[in-house]
Amino acid sequence: MLVSPQQMLDAEADWMNAHGNAGTLMEKAGLGISRAIAGHFPPHLRRGTLVLALGPGNNAGDACVAARPFAAAGWTIRWIAACPERPLSDLTQKNLAALGECAKKLNSAHEPDPDWPRPLVVVDGLLGIGARPPLRGPVAAATQWINHWRTVHNAFTVSIDLPTGLDGTTGEADTHCIVADLTATVCQPKTGLVTDNASPYVGRLEVIPLPELQPAGDTTHQVTTRQMLAAWLPRPAHDQHKSTAGRVLVVAGSPGMTGAAALTAHAALRSGAGLVTIITHPSSIDQVAARCAPEIMVQPFPSDDHIDWKSFDAVALGPGLGANSDTLACNILRQCPLPVVVDADALNALSRLSVAERSPLLDQPAGPRILTPHPGEFRRLANDLTGTRAERARAFTERHPGSVLLLKGQRTLTGSQDGPLLANPTGHAGMATAGMGDTLTGICAAFAARGLAPAISAAAAAWIHGRAAEIASFLGPRHTAVDSLTASDVIDHIGSALDDLRTL
Ligand SMILES: NC(=O)C1=CN([C@@H]2O[C@H](COP(=O)(O)OP(=O)(O)OC[C@H]3O[C@@H](n4cnc5c(N)ncnc54)[C@H](O)[C@@H]3O)[C@@H](O)[C@H]2O)[C@@H](O)CC1
Ligand SMILES: Nc1ncnc2c1ncn2[C@@H]1O[C@H](COP(=O)(O)OP(=O)(O)O)[C@@H](O)[C@H]1O
């Protein structure tokens, strides 16, 4: 559910009227924020430096609570009062004191101390949901040094509830709005966080559960959470075998794009599929097979276009298929009774059909369909739709009620006729690289083959895909800069993302 800042403030006021003490809520929220930071930097694994930028409100208290497990694990803790003319709130002072001697005050924040251990994490506890841009005075100065540290000193920035300078309702941002690598939003995500305006500022989004508060809000638009996913993704049954674990058919690859077929198939294999078979252009078979692990079967397109659907549970259709396979792609879409994840050149084939030919394939398909366009492919499929990404996604699923839409991008959206619009919170900008969509298609097809409903397969795949990218970049044994991530790195960490999800 999305809530406006006002709805959240109302829920907080109700709780305060009934219980009169914000301390217990701060304790829970702060420890949840701490766990979210630990999802990138487990405090016992790498001992770095945590800098707390404290404002006059209770976000600053949350930041101090969040720092406690890091202090206990031996991190260097520094804090700075961003508005020296205003006192820190009573709860902030109490939780700052609880950090003990290891939390030292900074009088200015021109540059980070070169002797501080890395990683360097800065927590933006400046302003909360009660504030709105424009930024003024010392807070505006604080957001500028935090953004400078991020750009020049590779600081990882964590915002509590919303990046300071972002309007929680509209997502409009002040010029000096914090660019948050992680936004830990308490209780429910605020409407502004998932708007198109907010995408340069919000980064990874983590919703910190706080069931004590019960705000009203918009249930038709949600952020996918770990709690939802854990209920959706079953562990394998003791008595399953490879033919019941999910059989994926990958229809992909062509001369020059054999890697797309291999990436899709490997992602499906790592996402729990029991059997993975690629069918590809006869001229590419040897190259595709050479790229694949021995577990993956590789066969040529059948000469008569006949595929025995009983041998499979789901299909991944389109990655690297090239522009000469429109007939094959459209025939599969006409005939296949199984869930089909429709990507890349299969989407382009659909775009090239007339509306009269395309509509029945999307509105009354022969089986479940999950369409996974990136924004370029989406424009080709529905170039008449206008409005925000969310509005266009909704309009598309209303127009084509028989298909699930997985609209990729920085905040990937899953839309379906009868479910809420789901915004994906995981992932980072290092995912903007070749083959990443092919990987997502493989994960999604494996989940559909394992029996998950189409919309759930799509939303779960987007979450796992993004989380695998985070683990590869921040936690994996060979973690490196975000911008050196490859699609193959993501595939290598799908298993860690599944594990991570199950160790809530
Ligand atoms: N190793 C391989 O074999 C690879 C094969 N690939 C295949 O190459 C084929 C062509 O796919 P491409 O997606 O590269 O080409 P497309 O022509 O479908 O898409 C590129 C166009 O879409 C726009 N676009 C893409 N992402 C966008 C975004 N986030 N926002 C706005 N616009 C965006 C670009 O500006 C560009 O105009 C597909 O079959 C694909 O599966 C690619 O996945 C790359 C790797
Ligand atoms: N800036 C970003 N932040 C988070 N995820 C991103 C970002 N850019 C791209 N992605 C993700 O990476 C994938 C790219 O898919 P796509 O463009 O189809 O790649 P390809 O066609 O090369 O396989 C999508 O899942 C998308 O959501």
TrEMBL record:
Pfam families: Carb_kinase, YjeF_N
Domain YjeF C-terminal: 225-501
Domain (YjeF N-terminal) ranges: 8-218
Name of the molecule in the record: ADP-dependent (S)-NAD(P)H-hydrate dehydratase
Subunit record text: Homotetramer.
UniProt-annotated binding residues for AMP: 408-412, 437
InterPro entries documented for this protein: Carbohydrate_kinase_pred_CS, CARKD, Nnr, Ribokinase-like, YjeF_N_dom, YjeF_N_dom_sf
Binding note for cofactor: Binds 1 potassium ion per subunit.
Residues binding (6S)-NADPHX, per UniProt: 260, 320, 374, 438
Classification via CDD domains: YXKO-related (cd01171)
Keyword NADP in record: yes
Enzyme class: lyase
The gene coding this protein: nnrD
Keywords: ATP-binding, Isomerase, Lyase, Metal-binding, Multifunctional enzyme, NAD, NADP, Nucleotide-binding, Potassium
Keyword ATP-binding: yes
Higher taxonomy: Bacteria, Pseudomonadati, Verrucomicrobiota, Verrucomicrobiia, Verrucomicrobiales
GO molecular function: ADP-dependent NAD(P)H-hydrate dehydratase activity; ATP binding; metal ion binding; NAD(P)HX epimerase activity
HAMAP family reported in the protein's UniProt record: NADHX_dehydratase
Obligatory cofactor(s): K(+); Mg(2+)
PANTHER family: ATP-DEPENDENT (S)-NAD(P)H-HYDRATE DEHYDRATASE (PTHR12592:SF0), ATP-DEPENDENT (S)-NAD(P)H-HYDRATE DEHYDRATASE FAMILY MEMBER (PTHR12592)
Similarity-based family: In the C-terminal section; belongs to the NnrD/CARKD family. Belongs to the NnrD/CARKD family.
